[in-house]
Every structure is written in C-alpha cells, then in structure tokens.
Design brief:
Number of helices: 5
Shape: globular
Structural class: alpha/beta
Order of helices and strands: HEHEHEEEHEEH
Helix content: 25-40%
Strand content: 25-35%
Number of strands: 7
Distance between the termini: 33 Å
Strand order of the largest sheet: 2-1-3
Length: 183
C-alpha cells in the first residue's frame, strides 16, 4: 500500500479471507485517514460486490488478491497443481473473479533488498493474462491450466529469492482431489 501510494497514487482494493483484517484496516484508517486502502472479505462475495469491483477497475483502481491462499471453506474450490516437485492445492476463485471482472491480470511480487545498509522494497510486476477466459466446455481444464501457470510463476520467484516466499499453512497438505474439488 505504501509503495503504491508513493509511486502510483492508486486506490487499492484488497480481497482477503480473514475477518480479523477488519481490525487492521480500522487501525490503518485511524493512523492515516487519507489511506487509499479498501478491504473486502472474500467469503462475502456476491454479484453486487463483483459489479462494484468492476466499476473500481474501470475508474483505474487496483484489486489485489492472494492467489495462493486456500479458501476458508477448505479444498472444495481448489485444483491440484505441481509446485516445487510436489502436488499442492491452489484456489480457483481468483480466476473466476478475473473472468467476471474482464480485466488484465498481473502478478505482483515484492522483495526486500539491502542496499547501502538500508532495507528497500523492490516490486516486480509480471503480466499473467490480458483476460481470463473460462468457456463452459473447457472450464475445468482451463482453471487447472491457469493455476498451473501461476504455480510456475511462483516457482520462478522462489528460485529468484528463495527465502522471501512465506506461507503460514500446510501448503502441501495431502488430499485426494476429485472432480468435485474444481466445480
């Protein structure tokens, strides 16, 4: 948020799974009433929220979502991909959302760099797709393909900066994916 405000002056809309983030957002607005940060709970999505986000994108605002976080409902809306040599689950919700928003999708990675005895944050933006297409006939295969492409991009970043990818849950949990997992 700080980087974007300093360099791009963008309003940022962050989609999160954690209800506890409401306290964080409230604190940020108390500290900085001019904060250009909006947080939406993913578990409360409906058509109205999607239309509101589409309008924000049309106005030049950004929408962020962590594409590697399993939904709070568990593995029901995930697909199984290959990641760093093992099977892992990734959510499919970000692709449905990008499809509904009909907008370009970028991946944003940030790194800490020590330069001249100061910590700097470097931001890398990678174009993922001009638009996410999910035709009915190939939807399951397309969701899997998008998730696998995303996993490949994360692998590249892990090779580039192996100690700067953080995940606070059992990413490689052992589950048996079934066709119902990706519906």
């Amino acid at each position: 948020r700080s980087f974007i405000q300093r360099t791009h002056n963008k309003i940022v809309n962050i989609l999160v799974y954690d209800k506890h983030s409401e306290n964080f957002v409230s604190m940020m607005h108390r500290i900085n009433p001019d904060s250009r940060l909006n947080v939406y709970q993913v578990d409360e999505f409906d058509v109205v929220t999607v239309l509101k986000l589409r309008e924000k994108i049309t106005q030049g605002e950004w929408v962020f979502i962590a594409g590697d976080r399993i939904p709070v409902t568990g593995h029901q809306r995930t697909t199984s991909i290959n990641f760093l040599g093992r099977k892992a689950q990734l959510p499919i919700g970000p692709y449905y959302l990008a499809h509904a928003l009909a907008c370009p999708v970028n991946l944003i990675f940030s790194y800490r760099h020590n330069m001249a005895n100061t910590q700097k944050i470097k931001l890398e933006v990678v174009r993922f797709s001009e638009k996410i297409f999910l035709p009915r006939k190939s939807r399951d295969a397309d969701l899997l393909d998008y998730a696998q492409q995303f996993a490949i991009e994360i692998e590249k970043q892990c090779i580039h900066a192996p100690f700067q990818w953080f995940n606070f849950y059992d990413f490689w949990a052992t589950i048996k994916p079934t066709p119902s997992n990706i519906r």
